[in-house]
Design a protein that fits this description.
Arc Repressor Mutant, subunit A; 2 domains; three-stranded antiparallel beta sheet; two-stranded parallel sheet; 6 helices
Length: 203
């Protein structure tokens, strides 16, 4: 087995528009997320996603060419070579200033993320209603509008990033027998003019 892995970085700042456009593709984004933990082959990712491997190969190649995933090891198997890929970072940050006003890449990226989140949340809620766990952790959905200062926003951003970094740092040492897969979606943005502060909580 040949290995070149040094492990993913904590954060990668996306500074290239072509990289951002790849992230705007829902399928490529799903592949990138699937490769965000342990290194996987395209076959393993395809099985986890319920896709045909032949559909994913060119997408993995595009992600590798753009520097978003990397080949970390190879293994001979039955006359072929298995290739294991891993995302280059555990988290990717894309700044809106990267996009020109006339470029719809940002809208496409947001639409893909929101569509996936909607599908996953709907499926999670249906599964939870069918098999509730009253003594376990409950799904939480919070819709919030608030009047905040710049200092409050800076503090919130810092605490959220610290929490995300802490969560990611514990992934490598967590026991798979004592953990469960959870997903989250967070967006915090200026409210449209005229909308008042309120809070709607569903759990």
């Amino acid at each position: 087995m040949k290995s070149t892995s040094t492990g993913p970085e904590a954060v990668m700042a996306i500074a290239d528009l072509e990289q951002a456009r790849l992230l705007a593709d829902p399928l490529k984004l799903s592949i990138l997320q699937a490769m965000g933990g342990e290194a996987k082959t395209t076959m393993q990712v395809a099985e986890a996603m319920g896709e045909k491997p032949t559909r994913l190969y060119r997408h993995v190649e595009a992600l590798e060419a753009a520097g978003l995933v990397r080949l970390v090891r190879t293994r001979p198997k039955r006359g072929t070579v298995e290739k294991y890929y891993q995302a280059v970072a555990r988290r990717f940050e894309v700044h809106p200033d990267l996009f020109a006003p006339e470029d719809n890449t940002l809208d496409t990226m947001l639409a893909g993320i929101l569509t996936r989140a909607t599908t996953e949340i709907g499926e999670a809620m249906r599964n939870f209603r069918q098999s509730p766990h009253p003594d376990g952790p409950q799904p939480l959905f919070l819709h919030l509008r608030a009047e905040v200062s710049a200092a409050d926003l800076d503090d919130l951003h810092r605490r959220l990033m610290d929490w995300a970094d802490d969560l990611e740092s514990r992934q490598a040492t967590a026991s798979h027998e004592s953990t469960a897969n959870w997903s989250g979606f967070l967006a915090f943005y200026p409210s449209p003019t005229g909308q008042k502060s309120n809070r709607e909580n569903t759990s």
